[in-house]
Design goal:
391 residues; alpha/beta; TIM Barrel; 2 domains; six-stranded parallel β-sheet; three-stranded parallel β-sheet; 17 helices; 48% helix; globular
Amino acid sequence: MKTKILIISILLGQQLLAQSYQKIHENAIFIDTHNDFLSKTTDYGYVFDTDLRGKTHADLARLKKGGIDVQLFSVFCDGTKKNPYEFANRQMDSLDAVLKRNPDKIVKVANSKELHKVVKQQKIAAMFGVEGGHMIENDLDKLVVFYNRGARYMTLTWNNSTNWASSAYDETYNNDLTNNGLSDFGKQVVKKMNDLGMMVDISHVGVQTFWDVINTTTKPIIASHSAVYALCQHQRNLNDEQIKAIAKNGGVIQMNFYSAFLDNNYKKKVDDFFAKHAVEMESLTASGMNEFQTEDFLFNKNEVEPFRVPFSVLIDNIEYIIKLVGADYVGIGSDFDGIQSPPKELDDVTNYPLITKALIEKGYNKHVISKILGGNFLRVLKANEAKNKSE
């Protein structure tokens, strides 16, 4: 009899938890600041408002199912792309076409006021994030064009440096790096972004560039898709002093899902995998595939499974930031559709409620969880929209 009562109690408790986390997830404004789907459009011709289950981490229907209220779409190309500004605009065009076909489901918004209005209408609010300052081609007028098209942050560098900002990759590995940190023009870029109300994103930038940004910006900054260096020593991750500086600045760190930034052993395991497939990689490259297409082809869903980190590791990163600087400075920046291997259980955007469930199980209340899911980013967005006192 006691055993039966215990089982019933456990089942009731699980049912209440399920109801609780789903309700909290639905009531919160859930914001993901970094999804790379637009690269899937330009690389593979995938169309966002079609059923792409088994092919991508996201599509329009699955965003809704995952409870996503606001999605920032990454505009990306690497440093080898010719005419990167033109290419960036092509990616923006591809999303604009989706928005035009689906005004009842997803709407591009220019500011936090419009965002709240669209979310209240139970539609998805969309914005762009430009991932790599090389796409402005050293022209502040092109930065303004991106802003006017709906870009609300720019990542100052990708892995490739510009001649005005050094990347984390180059500061770590490039012995021939000639410019370290922000140049005078780089500081002009930051100031122009502050004036526009465009958030400065320091994911991918080098340590020297980071501190130059901190000393230049007049607005809170973001790390749109980063993780914790103390837990995984990848050059892309943020060390404790950087995390503290972002908190002091009033910014926010949006947590990246990529296993490479969450597991110190990931890189060696993946390098070994691709070494075994060197012949295939060479053949695919010769056929015209770019680096990302080649890796996607070889590192398919079945192959990637053993490399994925436990879901708990992602929560560990979120908690590390909370314990170091508080719950006001962390959010979600998945990097979905720009990564091969998210944590286990997070197969695609429909699994986002599991984060809410895990945070409840850790003892966080709905107020704190709502901050993490989107409230913290909203605060930074609003702060960037505010006019500088000197203006």
